[in-house]
Structures are given as C-alpha cells and as structure tokens.
Amino acid sequence: MKKYISLIFILGLIFFFQSCSSQNTGDSKMVDALVSSEEFTFHAERANPTNYDVIKVMNSMPNSTSTRILQLNGDYTVEIKKNNLDVTLPYFGRLFNPTYGNTNNNSYRFTSKDFTINKSQNKKGNWTLRIKLNDVNNVDEINIEVYKNGKAFTSVRSNDRQPITYDGFVSKNDPEPAP
Helix, strand or coil for residue 63? Predict the structure, then answer.
C-alpha cells in the first residue's frame, strides 16, 4: 500500500510541474501574423552582456547578482514597421570607440529607414529575422528569434563594441497617436 501511495504522490508532482511549465504568453497564430506582417515590437526584459569583465563587476557588488541587476523595466524596445526601425536598447559591455561627454551615443538609440529583413521559419514554428542596417554606422546586424509563445531573443552585432543579447517578448505595435 505504501508503494502505491508513493507512486501516486510522484505522479501528482510530475503533473503539477508539467502544468506549471506549459503556460504560454501568446497565441502562436497571433505571433505568426505579427512576424509575417513585419510590424511588431520587441520588448526587452533582460540584458545579457557577453563581456565577462562586466559580469564579474556586477557579481562583485555586495548582496546582488548580475542576473537581478540586468532585469529591464520594459521601456527598451525594437519597433519594426514597414519603412521604419526604431531601436531603444541599453548597452552593457566594452566600447571600442566611446563618445565622451555625450553618453546617449553609448547605448543603442537610433532610427533606421534603410534596412532589409530576411526571415525564415524552422520546423518547430520559431521565426528568425535577420535585419541588415544600411544607414546606421555602428550597428551591422540585429537578429531576432521569435518563439511560438511570443517570447523572443535578440542579439545586436556592432562594429564598435562587443555583442550583446536581450530576452523579452513581442507584441503588436502601439497605434499611432492622432494628430
């Protein structure tokens, strides 16, 4: 009898954890429609620097971990429209050509009107977008991988700094304000 009770308990735990891990954030048809239209917004929730020196400095701060420090507030976005790409992302890492005095140029804050998007979908239904920028000097390429549940992973490759990645989600663009 004890054997059956422990077996039922273990199966109950498995089903409990299975139901907790299968929660989705978005509908896969909505995500497919957003990516197909090439008009959506990526909201960054977490920054992942690749520079180990930055990670060591953040881990050396008392009573904190670098994972908690790099949680973003959701105001950092990549907004994709048909003729406009608006990027507002923070940067943590090593700059090879920093601008002194004007710290706004040390993060990714720009608008591009000349870019190309190559998108593909794999067998699992995840989308990969490669955005090649032609009118921005310091950013070469932005890669966005969008999963079926709406979560996304973005990496930025730049000419004058080390690469950085961001975790977040995609959503519909906010409507334009009326003039």
Answer: coil
